Structure formats: structure tokens, C-alpha cells
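Tutorial handout. Part one gives the primary structure; part two gives the three-dimensional structure as C-alpha cells.
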Amino acid sequence: TYHSSREDLDNYDIRHRLDPYHLHKLALTYRSHPVTLTAGVDNIFDTLYSEKFGFPGRGRNLFFTLEIGI
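Part two.
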């Protein structure tokens, strides 16, 4: 996903321009009724970014989900 440059306020209401950034995600899903298993990586390239001024975004994250239909 692409996030363009934008402005944000700090604690003193001073405007700061945040740099644009790209985040990449990879996920694999296996389905066998009634089970769905998903595993993946968020922020594959460990991009440094800020969603809010003064707070860095999350680094690379692994995730796993297991869904069981009833």
C-alpha cells in the first residue's frame, strides 16, 4: 500500500510534514472446510515510517490466523 506525504500536529500544535512510504504484505491461505489457516508477513522490507508525528510505525511483523467454521 502507498501512503502519500501528509501533515500532522505535534503536542504543541506545530505542523510537520510526514514523508510518503510504501508498505508491502505477503500472505498465504490454506482452506479445507471448515478450517482456514493464514500465515504472512506485514512490512516485508522493514520500512521505517511514521503514521503520526513522533511515533515510528511498526516494523516487520509475522501473523497467523486460524478460523474454524461452526
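Part three, for discussion. The first strand starts at residue 2 and ends at 3. The mean pLDDT is 94.
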